[in-house]
Amino acid sequence: MHPALHHALPPALPNPSALASHWMLDSSVVMLNHGSFGATPRVILARQEQLRQQMEAEPVGFFVEALEPLLDTARSALAAFLACDSDDLAFVPNASAGVSTILRSLRFEPGDEILAFHHEYNACKNALLHIARQNGARVVIVRFPFPAGSSEQIAHAITSAITPRTRLLLLSHITSPSATLCPAAEIIRLAQTQGVDVLLDSAHGPGNIPLDLKALGAAYTTGNLHKWCCAGKGTAFLHVRRDRQHLISPLIISHGANSKRTDRSRFRLEADFTGTQDLSGPLSLPEVLQFLPSLLPAASWQAVMAHNHALAQQGAGILAAALGTSPALPRHLATSMALVPLPRHDDAVEARLKAMPTRYEDALQDRLLQRHRVQVPILRMPQFESETAFPDTGPTRHARISAQLYNSPSQYSYLAEALKVELAAECE
Ligand SMILES: Cc1ncc(COP(=O)(O)O)c(C=O)c1O
User: Fold this and answer.
1) Is residue 365 lining ligand 1, measured as CB closer than 6 Å?
2) Measuring from atom 10 of ligand 1, which residue has the nearest CA?
3) Test site for ligand 1: of 37, 91, 103, 121, most ligand atoms within 8 A of the Cβ
4) Burial class (CB in 10 A: 0-12, 13-18, 19+), 271
5) Does pTM surpass 0.90?
6) What does the pLDDT look like over 91-112, one tens digit per residue?
7) Distance (Å, rounded) from C-alpha 380 to C-alpha 353?
8) For 393-412, what is each residue's pLDDT tens digit?
């Protein structure tokens, strides 16, 4: 342990909020990274266990008779939450699967262009590149206006790159490396006026920002429910606009493909059964969608989101003040995650830090966990795909903090102190 730690650290870890008892989180870790994988409350895990017991008590009856009505109920609850028609929703295990379902279903010709920002999630960029290589299509990567791009700049940057060859635009609703809320409605509108469909990757959307899928009108939207709604892992949706459903098949082809049923659309028949699996995550959605609101006096999702946004802002303020920087995002582009730039070291120190081994993107993250028991991502901005033609300017490292109902302001103060100690140690 660095000698400075003995003096600089508070004697004990900071308490989370009083609501943390609803989660199973390890009390020896200060969890400030809800954004990466979410965390599921005890009552939801209990509901999943109940469903698993029902499944295991009579597996054949469960899959043949009970599953469909349970799925219908879960899908209806989700449709009300997302303001869409439940017939246009499919459950998928995660947003990665939602993105790949669309990319693998659509047909691209050589020379077709797929447009995306360089701040798209790495896994989804990989999916784009894979599909493009298979079809001779081209992925056109556009520089994301960061830091401090306005909504208008963000919308203009991507839509002005549309050409007559553009077939699809992939857009993160909230970017992963920069935690920025993108103006999805405006981008979808502008793209559609030029005949380009949008695949909206709202991995961080549900439970974090209000979603009205009908009003957004994207051809394709995927979103995770295991992040900000706190559903069990493997709970996500894919929404396909009715006029595009004939183009889309699930990643796994199963009985629905030749079902003789006529009471449901082919899209539903294909999406609803993709082989034997544990669907306790999606089936728990009616309970999931009621649980977080029930923890606050106002008992609404609006209150949950407002609480988390305000806490993330407060946390960013605490960190920025301690580090002598400013939060990277204006309030209207930030959500339940906030991004705080770390002060820049000189080039020699930066080069040494970049070379340090890490399980994450930066060894500072490992040290914060090992020495201070804080779980928080330290992100380095992705470089523009065409090497460093447009290198990012400004601070290269940011702390991306999350705020969920179990977090407390003192946890961000604790992180600020830990960061000061570690940043000072990096220069030694
Ligand atoms: C923008 C974005 N897209 C997709 C994903 C992938 O989510 P999952 O791992 O649940 O598929 C993430 C995960 O953080 C993300 O931030």
Assistant:
1) no
2) 94
3) 121
4) buried
5) yes
6) 999 999 999 999 999 999 999 9
7) 12
8) 556 899 999 999 999 999 99
